[in-house]
Structure formats: structure tokens, C-alpha cells
Amino acid sequence: MARFEHTVTVPALDRGWFEEAAGALVDLFEASREQGGAILLPDGRPIHGLRLLKGRHLQAGAHYGEDPGADAADGTAKAPGAPDASKAPGAPDVSETTVLREWRPSRSVEVESLMAEEDMSVRIGVRLREPRTPRELEVSLAGHNPKGGSLYRFSGRAKADLHAWWAALDRPSSAPPQARPPVVGKAVHRLARARLTVTPRPAGDGSWQVSVVLSARGRWLLRPVGAVALFFARRPVERGFREAVDSAAEEWTEMLAELPSLHGEALRAEIADALTEPPEPLESAV
Predict the structure, then answer these.
(1) Which of 104, 156, 175, 282 has the most neighbouring CB atoms within 10 Å?
(2) How far is residue 229 from each of residues 196, 238, 269, measured CA to CA in Å?
(3) In whole angstroms, what is the distance from residue 165 CA to residue 249 CA?
(4) What domain range includes position 206?
(5) How many structural domains does the chain have?
């Protein structure tokens, strides 16, 4: 078995703001309504890129996605047979549908996304417990190539105990790390199995020190083969792992810098604007 560990320091996310934003987002969806397939916020504005395709809004079994007859670039109707202006030339055709499995804002919200293209089909499940003040997040992933065999199948599960995460950050910085990491992820393939853990602790300046540990091992008869391969490839694998963790830390820092420092109705209005406005084109974002 191979084990890699890397620790990064990142800015802290305020728990109060996070839970207030989560509650405002859930309340906006709870108060939304469906009209002609469009999902309208309480002020009458439609949520961009989200339409009800099947079932009843906010009822288990409801299917959501983009309107197949609209141009995602500007929301206008698309003529039959016309090319999709939002898709880059030569890009593969991808279908994506989101199914609402459970909507109980005081207890649990669960959705499942199905994405399919010619060479890959992926199913992603997300379940959030106590979504107004998020307590636990569970994510599952399963993918396969419809034209391939077992070597083209993979699966994974991850669980984040958010209460344990905040509790770890309330401990003194000199205290030892928690015995059980708040975030644990597992991935399985026919050839290998991997486990990822994430553990935070407070830094002296108010930021977070986050330790990421990756363990991997081959399966069945490939264990000795994997051990030999890793002996020769350990350094580049470890370097790639560190670079991936560093990149994630940089993205986290950039994301926090862009979050609005608003509260109350101002925060609710900002979230509503973000839901109804199309994302900026890549050209203008650079």
C-alpha cells in the first residue's frame, strides 16, 4: 500500500456566514414555483439554465435540466436542426438530467445527476442532511463505458461530517488531530482501491491547516505488480498529488475572495441574482 500526505494553509470560511447562505439558498428554492417548465423565484425571475422536464416541482422523482429547445447562450428558442451555439465545435454530445430524490428542507435533500455521452456514462448522487444548517454531505459516483468491460467501470463514495469539521476547528491549535477525519472518500476500480481523508486544524493566525492523506493499493493479483510499479514511480506520483492539493488550495482561496461579505436580505438578494444571471463568458472572465 502507498500512502501520501500533504498539508496546506488556507483562509478560513466563517461558519455563521456559510450556514446563513445555505439557509437562504434552501428558502429560495422552497419558495420557488414552476411555470411552463421554468422555475421562478419568489420575485418572478426564472432560475437560469434550470427547467422542469418531468414530474412535479420539488416532489420526489422530478427531472430537471436545460430546455432542449433553447439556446443556452441567450435563452432564445432554437430552430429545429440548428447547431447549439453554446457548444464548442467538435465537442461531444452530452446529455445531463438531474433527478430530485428527496426534498425535506428541515431534514434531508437528495439529488442524482445522470450524464451520458458516447463513450462514458456517469451517475452522481448528492445528499445533504439538515440543509438549512448543513450537518452532513454524502456524495456517490459511478461510471462506465457502455461499450467497454469491467476495466471501464469505477465507483466512489465520500462523506463529510460538517459538525465534526467545525468541532475540529474549535479545538486548540496545540491539540492533536481528531482520531477520525471529518472527510473520508473511497474509490474502487477493478485494478485498485484508494482512500482519501481530509482533516483540518486551526492555525495561529485564524486560517486553517488542512491535511490531506491518500492511500492506494492494488487489488487481487495486482498487489505485487502495483508495489513494483510504485517503487519506480513514487516520486512523480507524490509530486502530482502535492500539486493537486496545492491547486485545490489556490482555488479555495480564490473562491473565498469572491464571496460577498453580506448578511440578511442583502445576502438573499445576492444569491437570487446569482441564480438568475447567466455565467460570464470565459473570454470576459480572463
Answers:
(1) 156
(2) 20, 13, 54
(3) 17
(4) 2-66+95-276
(5) 1
